[in-house]
Amino acid sequence: MTTIPSVPVPLSGERFCVVYCLAAKDEAEAREKARDICLEQTVEFPDDLVPDGDIRDHILGCIESFERRDAHHFETVISYAVETSGFELTQLLNVVFGNSSIKPGIRVERLDLPDSLLHAFKGPRFGRDGLRAWLNASHRPLLCTALKPMGLPPKELAYLAYQCALGGIDIVKDDHGLADQSFSPFTERVQRCAEAVAQANRETGLKRIYMPNVTGPASRVVEHALFAKQAGAGGLLFSPGLAGLNLMQQLADDDRVGLPIMTHPAWQGSFVTGPDNGISHYALFGQIARLAGADASIFPNYGGRFSFSREDCQSIAEGTTAPMARIKSIFPAPGGGMSLARVPEMLDLYGRDVIFLIGGGLHRQGPNLVENCRHFHQLVAER
Amino acid sequence: MTTIPSVPVPLSGERFCVVYCLAAKDEAEAREKARDICLEQTVEFPDDLVPDGDIRDHILGCIESFERRDAHHFETVISYAVETSGFELTQLLNVVFGNSSIKPGIRVERLDLPDSLLHAFKGPRFGRDGLRAWLNASHRPLLCTALKPMGLPPKELAYLAYQCALGGIDIVKDDHGLADQSFSPFTERVQRCAEAVAQANRETGLKRIYMPNVTGPASRVVEHALFAKQAGAGGLLFSPGLAGLNLMQQLADDDRVGLPIMTHPAWQGSFVTGPDNGISHYALFGQIARLAGADASIFPNYGGRFSFSREDCQSIAEGTTAPMARIKSIFPAPGGGMSLARVPEMLDLYGRDVIFLIGGGLHRQGPNLVENCRHFHQLVAER
């Protein structure tokens, strides 16, 4: 065996923690998994090759606690030196779950990050308070809809946007399937839809915003965002699973952009569909979305056409506002097959700090889209 | 109900196909899932709201085939108009699996893309032949190791790099946990390690390369890649799960960079750990990695400390070389806890078009790292 040198590693002593849920046949297997995470997420070296000294004592993950949850599930808290994260998002996530994502029976439940690490993140530019101020809506729940179906040309989408804004929908966003397609080119769509919402605002005297989807090629995302801003868009839709959490963070941090960002969960589902592997709803759609600069986090509401439970959704709402130093709270934005009839029940769960995202359901109430939107607005605002 | 206008949508008639595996209690449920995918991945609208005409006839996904695999699994092929992809990676992936990723029991098995769509992708810059030429290794399997453990300073990592290159390891890469940390700053590490490998090359007259990890903040990845090239790095390590497939594609397509790219699977594991949800090994580590410009795709070998099966690994190898128009074949790079003793067995499975990635195992053979590397090289080259 070769000898890996034992070197001093200058570290502050500050550590961050990750809560993992481990699925295992028994406690011994779970303890083995916990020890394995300590190695896998840091040195990625067999234990007997790890040199003694600072690397073994401080770079390795450290099991801070371990307890049984039920017959086959165990919870462990593992800490890591803050310096392992390089104080940036991709490497932080790598330490949290890089290689362990490839092992069955390991699920990230929660991040517990000290101020010294959180200080490296600007987080959401707007957050809840900022988005409320941006929309002149200080107390009530916010309303959102998506322009669709894919296939409509910009002119038709813009007319839908006009009607929705006129009817009182605060955020009129692109469906996440609207990209830069020949039948709906990005620039034409953004110009037409932004102008349509501006026209509605001139008529109502209110402020509704259009949020185009800027998910796309890495080299064009910032360019698209700047174009959207210049065209009058009031925010941006971004799918970090498809286009990268790090690119979303760049958009959020860029002062030239300076628009609220709403995330869409496309492509991220596989992290939460397995009960024993992946990332908790709380961490993925709450904590991590905030770290990466989202101002609102879209997720499928329970009881719609997706499979999230009421508890999953509640945990996301908690993750959007759990204390994280100066990282702002953001809006949970439940959607996905919801109907107007469910608004009261959802208000009970989420309270007023929520964005209701309703797509197809908005077309069902009656033949007039503007009236349908007004009805939706009244349902929510009257509470 | 409102009326969504029926509009003509100018389309070429060309379609791409996705093979999905559906888990369901019976055929009726599986057929319902297939129909649901057709809507969810395109118009994201309830069926009764979809206007007749081109949107219903051509924008909607179309079930091309449906058959039972076993009692609870069904295979369906669904086609989509190529124009829905916007002819770019993020939107293509969105149509393939955006919202469906959030639904249990849906797994992407294979992409079948026509030349008209593949033509929009440059794919790997080097591919198998290009990387062989780059390394002056026309026939034999290639050897790779990772610099670690995290915590070592650049000088110590560089000495390891020197020894590995001297011993005949073709690709000496950063461990994917080496980022831009205070104990191993990116620029100092890259300069020292590139120089160490260059020194070994001067002594041997051979060409070995150093591949630094450029996964990181979106705004710095290209800058880091250009720095690495200028410092003499011979390739780049990138973790697309953490930093984005689209950003990797940008790196691959950028003529100023022009270096081979090797992907690391960190953070991507959750796509393949659930048997009934996610993306197949073949598609994720083979087809999609190629579309996004990787020249080699690292994955955990079967029988190591991860859970991939022999069949999973074989399917990845197939995905790295399956016909995709002008998109080049790339190298499968199995690693993860493998030992020298397994080389013969792996040669039987992968043949000579493989990169053997061996990390910790390289330190076990004997006390002299250079000799251990030479032994590894002989084991492989003599076949």
Task: Pick out its properties.
homodimer, 383 residues, alpha/beta, 5-stranded mixed sheet, 4-stranded parallel sheet, 15 helices
What this model shows, in words?
- Two copies of one chain form a homodimer.
- Helices cover 38% and strands 18% of the residues of chain A.
- Chain A has 383 residues and is of the alpha/beta class.
- In chain A, the strands form three sheets. Chain A has a five-stranded mixed β-sheet with strand order 2-3-1-4-10. The first copy, chain A, has a four-stranded parallel β-sheet with strand order 7-6-5-13, with helices on one face. Chain A has a four-stranded parallel β-sheet with strand order 8-9-11-12, with helices on one face.
- Chains A and B meet through helix 2, helix 3, helix 9, helix 10 and helix 11 of A and helix 2, helix 3, helix 9, helix 10 and helix 11 of B.
Please outline the helices and strands.
The structure is a homodimer.
Chain A: E1 15-23, H1 27-40, H2 54-59, E2 62-70, E3 73-81, H3 89-97, E4 106-112, H4 115-118, H5 127-134, E5 142-147, H6 154-166, E6 171-174, H7 186-204, E7 209-211, H8 218-231, E8 236-238, H9 240-243, H10 245-253, E9 261-263, H11 270-273, E10 278-279, H12 281-291, E11 296-300, H13 310-319, E12 331-335, H14 343-350, E13 355-357, H15 369-381
Parallel strand pairs in A: 4-10, 5-6, 5-13, 6-7, 8-9, 9-11, 11-12
Antiparallel strand pairs in A: 1-3, 1-4, 2-3
Helix pairs in contact in A: 6-7, 6-15, 7-8, 12-13
